[in-house]
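Example 3.2
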Amino acid sequence: MAIDVNIRIIDDRRKTVLTFSPDSGVKGDLELNLLELENLIQALGSVHWMMVEGQKLADITGVTIKPAYQTKWAIQKNVVKGETLLAFQHPGYGPVGFVLTDPQIKEYLKALQKGLKIKK
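Structure, written as tokens:
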């Protein structure tokens, strides 16, 4: 089932309106403020996460990725498990992060150092 929806930002950029096509079976518009939109995006992300849990992750090598620039980020160490959380404020999805083990951190450090040497 495909859902055909038109999404537009209201002139003041404080709200968005989702309008579903007549064929979708959904009647009316859905008007969301910024917080409601963020909550919807996070809820959809959580549902997606549950649906793909246990499935093999697709390889992203060579995939076009839209980077998040000028973001806030944080690093948090989990002393108990010896893992590190690298998190950032994504402009489209809100706060997101991933966990790195110590061996992965060493691998990333090598890659970052190699990248710095290339730029010199």
